[in-house]
Design a protein that fits this description.
Helices cover about 30% and strands about 20% of the residues. It is of the alpha/beta class.
Amino acid sequence: MTIATVSPNPATVESGTAGERQAVAGRPLAAVTGAEIQAPLISGGHVRYANLDYGASAPALSVVSAYLNEILPYYASVHRGAGYASQISTSVYENARSIVRDFVGGRADDSVIFTRNTTDSLNLLAGCLPTTGGRHDGEVLYLDIEHHANLLPWQGVPHRSIVAADTVAGTLDAVRAELEQGGVSLLAVTGASNVTGEILPIRQLAELAHRHGARIVVDAAQLAPHRRVDISADSVDYLAFSGHKLYAPFGAGVLVGRPDWLDAGVPHLAGGGAVKEARLDGVSWATGPARHEGGSPNVLGAATLARATQVIAGLDQDRWHAHESAIRSFLVEGLQEIEGVTVHQIFKDTNPETDTIGVVNFSVEGYDAGLVAAYLSAEHGVGLRDGRFCAHPLLKRLGLPSGSLRASFGVGSRLEDAERLLTGIRTLRRNGLGWDYVVDAGRWVPANDFRTYPHWAPNTPGTAGAAPCIDD
């Protein structure tokens, strides 16, 4: 068993102040469900939970939660139902397509296909790449900085990868050089890194792809919750994102894009609703979204995703970006002032004011990332993410093969969340751990932890059943 012991004479430190940032980020920009939940501390007592894990799953907007409660009584099976509730549910579900299409600036003929999540969307597209005579018409080109959702689906088809340069400009040159070799049918890129929050120049990448006869798909799982996306203006062919990162519950995802590949591709799920006519020995497949939405769809997931996009679209963009930028800059500057803490990024030429979202990646010298995360949760009520963030090649390339820490935030965050994180890290560097920790089921947890969950939640380790994710 791995054990971490406390340092002697623990002490507390004062929180830093937000200064001029308090005016724009002292309060949440929008109300989210669960913003005031209380987290039990290992030393006793409770504190408001500081949720800095928006990049994994964002809390539902309060408006979206209210909308869910409003439509839930009318929930029924969609399509082909003559009943009143079924007609209402069908209307809500199909109207969600138009709402999502408008949110991303989609073209009039773009397909909007609801899926389980971003990973599902990209796997769907991978099954629709054009072929001739049973052979793919070209290769998929992707970068080494991608989340596994935009990496692994392409490994089952002809593909090639590029190691991103240490600058955005150099990376664009590398993509251009690879495209000039020919033979690429699709360029797959992230809109914003889920590891560091750095934004890629989507419009320039789309121009490069089209100039060389390729299409482009953008993994916008991280970008869409932080920046407005316009696929028409940016000439993006396909866009994928998820509701659970965009302040909607249920985890529904969506793929928006040009219909020709999608209508000709292999149906993503063979089953009811995806067919025109089924026979004992064959089938005639439907076209349009139905082709890839076999089985009963996630009606409430699609509905709440659409409602969340309406709320996000209605935000004042200047206030939205100022709120997020104030928290991010406060956190980055505070971390950089602490001895032994390193803030990580991919590109040297990233403009932190304009080309980043609410994600900060860092490590603490002398401490395993998982131990720091457990300490922050147990002793300070701060929740963030640790590990390799489903981006193993990038973490290895950043020199972090065992992982790092990621703080992520959004419209429901406040400056005090970042301040609490900084207080925790300063206390750790100055006084060490305030409790003993052990590794249980592959995760650091407080030793002799007698805290309990709410009465309705199974009081079992939260990491039970998790994939080990330890092999390089």
